Write a sequence for this structure.
């Protein structure tokens, strides 16, 4: 009931734009967004192939729920692998199931994601307009969104990024209304969205910890707010207990340890030492794990052994982790473009690998061999990515003292996901944050333009 009221308010966003008269014509924003989304949606329908590697897990999960009510993200006709019980949380699999229940086609799933993408962008404008209602800022924001091509690429893949983005924006909207209306109902809805977030992506299951402090802070404004932080904690414990019943191990998701061993540690050792050494350590860990019997012992061993190797080079890894985290703000998304346009990408490394091995000259020679559309788009996206990063930093340097709580909350979510993503970071991992990030960037760029025009510092209180 609470979520229904929440979503009703979100869809009232369209009416809000008519009242606020954003740009000269309130409909122009919606039409602009629809045109871009339809263009990418139709293009992908003709190009085909809506699947990335993770997509198959989600489709298996949806089919297994539908046919066997089994929350398992692999083929049930093959030997059971315990990791696949917890690898993918259930919400996106259920999302795929709902929009493909009566058909084998996944087109309706993509259509739903495009609609959610549009709503997320509009809702972001609504959140920020309550504090900075500036027409120029909205124009800059729409330009930045338009050149953030990964937004439209992942709206047309069977991937959870757009659904996660929608939930992140709704979470910020719920926080804003909780504080503005001092409403326990909005606060309860806020807790429910946190549950949906971690049941969509494992990265959010640790969010129950900062949520405790958020609710403690809210208790200064809303009586008994601190008790509401127990809601997602209880849900988390129940979900992990359910996983223990199925696998014998009390965990949230098996993908955490898999990523720790096969990505964080492997990429770090490849970067610091060499690929042969990294693969040798990875194989050594695999052999030790193979000697263990139970799933629980194997998962604990993966975590223990991988962590031990990281601790040996802790400071080097910390720097590697930080650099990897920040990369997603710069990455122009060559991998995304290659996949969207169905270019061959087998056994091909990216620009970073070419820079590491052959320097800037090697990367430039590699760039010249790319398809024409890649040569055309990548520099444009890269330039705008640098502009967005500058605008984001400029906003917070200039306005950290006057930023309202909801903007600090949005900033915290960006930092939270950035830090936890770590060395895996690429343009794809920024997608759930893109509307918020682009809005901060647009505000920062507006400050720059005003400051340049007036030859003095300016802020957004005007």
């Amino acid at each position: 009931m609470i979520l229904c009221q929440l979503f009703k308010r979100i869809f009232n966003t369209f009416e809000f734009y008519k009242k606020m008269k954003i740009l000269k014509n309130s409909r122009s924003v919606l039409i602009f967004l629809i045109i871009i989304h339809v263009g990418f949606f139709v293009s992908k329908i003709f190009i085909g192939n809506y699947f990335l590697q993770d997509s198959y897990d989600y489709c298996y999960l949806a089919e297994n729920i539908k046919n066997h009510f089994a929350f398992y993200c692999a083929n049930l006709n093959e030997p059971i692998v315990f990791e696949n019980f917890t690898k993918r949380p259930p919400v996106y699999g259920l999302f795929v199931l709902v929009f493909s229940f009566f058909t084998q086609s996944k087109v309706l799933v993509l259509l739903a994601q495009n609609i959610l993408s549009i709503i997320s962008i509009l809702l972001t404008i609504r959140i920020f307009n309550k504090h900075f209602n500036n027409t120029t800022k909205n124009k800059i924001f729409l330009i930045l969104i338009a050149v953030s091509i990964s937004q439209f690429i992942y709206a047309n893949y069977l991937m959870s990024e757009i659904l996660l983005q929608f939930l992140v924006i709704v979470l910020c909207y719920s926080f804003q209304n909780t504080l503005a209306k001092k409403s326990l109902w909005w606060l309860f809805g806020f807790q429910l969205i946190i549950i949906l977030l971690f049941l969509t992506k494992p990265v959010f299951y640790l969010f129950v910890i900062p949520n405790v402090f958020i609710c403690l802070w809210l208790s200064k404004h809303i009586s008994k707010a601190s008790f509401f932080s127990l809601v997602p904690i209880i849900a988390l414990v129940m979900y992990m207990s359910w996983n223990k019943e199925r696998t014998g191990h009390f965990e949230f998701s098996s993908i955490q340890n898999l990523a720790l061993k096969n990505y964080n540690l492997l990429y770090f050792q490849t970067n610091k030492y060499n690929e042969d050494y990294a693969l040798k350590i990875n194989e050594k860990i695999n052999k030790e794990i193979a000697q263990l019997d139970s799933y629980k012992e194997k998962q604990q061993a993966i975590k223990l052994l991988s962590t031990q190797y990281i601790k040996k080079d802790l400071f080097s890894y910390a720097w590697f982790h930080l650099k990897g985290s920040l990369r997603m703000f710069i990455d122009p998304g060559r991998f995304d473009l290659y996949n969207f346009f169905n270019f061959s990408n087998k056994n091909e490394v990216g620009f970073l690998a070419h820079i590491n091995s052959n320097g800037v000259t090697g990367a430039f020679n590699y760039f010249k061999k790319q398809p024409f559309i890649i040569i055309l788009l990548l520099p444009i996206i890269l330039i705008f990515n640098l502009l967005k990063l500058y605008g984001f930093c400029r906003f917070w340097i200039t306005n950290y003292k006057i930023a309202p709580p909801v903007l600090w909350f949005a900033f915290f979510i960006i930092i939270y996901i950035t830090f936890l993503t770590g060395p895996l970071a690429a343009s794809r991992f920024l997608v759930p944050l893109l509307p918020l990030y682009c809005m901060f960037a647009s505000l920062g760029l507006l400050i720059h333009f005003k400051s340049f025009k007036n030859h003095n510092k300016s802020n957004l209180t005007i």
